[in-house]
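Why do we care about 3D structure at all? Because function follows from shape, and shape follows, mostly, from sequence. That is the central idea of this module. The next example makes it concrete: a single protein chain, its amino acid sequence, and then its structure expressed as tokens.
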Amino acid sequence: MGGQWGDEGKAKIIDHLARSSEYVVRFQGGANAGHTVVVGNDRFAFHLVPSGILYPDVKCILGGGMVIDPIALVGEIEGIVSRGIEVSGRVFISSQAHVVMPYHMLLDRGSEEKKGDEKIGTTQKGISPAYVDKVARDGVRMSDLCRRSSDLTELLRQKIRTKNRTLKAIGIKPLSPKKVVEDVLAARKKLLPLIEDTRPMLWEALESGRSILCEGAQGTLLDVDHGTYPFVTSSSPTAGGAAIGTGLPPTSFGRVIGIFKAYCTRVGNGPFPSEDHGKAGNELRRVGNEFGTTTGRPRRCGWFDTVAARTVIKLNGITEIALTKLDVLDSFESIRVCTSYKVGKKRLDYFPTDIGLLERCRPHYEEFEGWRTETAGRGTSSLPKRAMAYVRRLEELVGCRVSLVSVGPERGAMYDVSEDNPPQKDLVNNVLDKVSP
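And the structure:
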């Protein structure tokens, strides 16, 4: 799961872990996520299908906690097949997952425009309105697509009539019920063989000792409960969300891997304490190619925030960290790390959920001398000493071990640093016991 505001490079880590997994399950979110995997000269961008699809023996499940645009999913699957990847018998869609309808996207756009300068900065993929309908018990689920065509048609027409009244009231052109029904039925025809109750499949796999990897989208700081509300996503991209979005019991999870960039980025609006508005922030964006996979929007950039990381580790029970994009820091003469916040004269060592308090937080930094040596493509078994010292210091500051370090988008650009880095069982609690009340 993501340890920051999303965009941490989860796809590469998931791709790495999927090699030894039999199932990869996406547990929340929708097409507002973009996971990019680089294999040789090929680049694969996934939005709904789990990143494990590139391994022929891995079964991929779109979990019940997701909201899925059926038309977008058909397009994504067809794109995957066109590149020679077999999906038959490998991709399954939970019947519990909710359907993102065309009116959800229009409502999303209208809501953002209405907010003006206070807009959240959503991807306008209809995610929030789909989750609103889910919670209001007024949604369309994948199980509904399994109804008889006549029953499904009547259900969709009823929903569209109701939503058209809302669209008209906010000045948006109503949808054609006939066109929407035709498009959904066309997508349904292709998706129907993939839809089933995926919980028994996962329970059987669990009881048989098979390996299951749960894939999160976005990041903990965008969690609807624990993130920078209201500048958050509409689901729970946390370890707790993994249990809810898959149907697996919380006690079944043996490892919780938090994926963090070696610095920080954020897309959209909302507080970002360690954001760098100057030359360094621009350089991080340029070198890190920090533009959204789904939207292409430039990401806001700043320094690694250990205050936020400690809170995220505690919230999720993270057992290990995968640190990505360390190579982006290769050219920096000095590197900063946020170690605490100041609010007036008070020092804060935890990440608050009160957005008013968070906006007043000022970061306190520790500075490191850069290693000024290329880490990507080194062809050696170890990182430069100063780069490794940076990794070790981050471990000390956040109270959790780093097991993987990524130094580029390619599959092979990865260091496994777990062997010379034994787990420190009590470190997380020891660090967080010192948090100010």
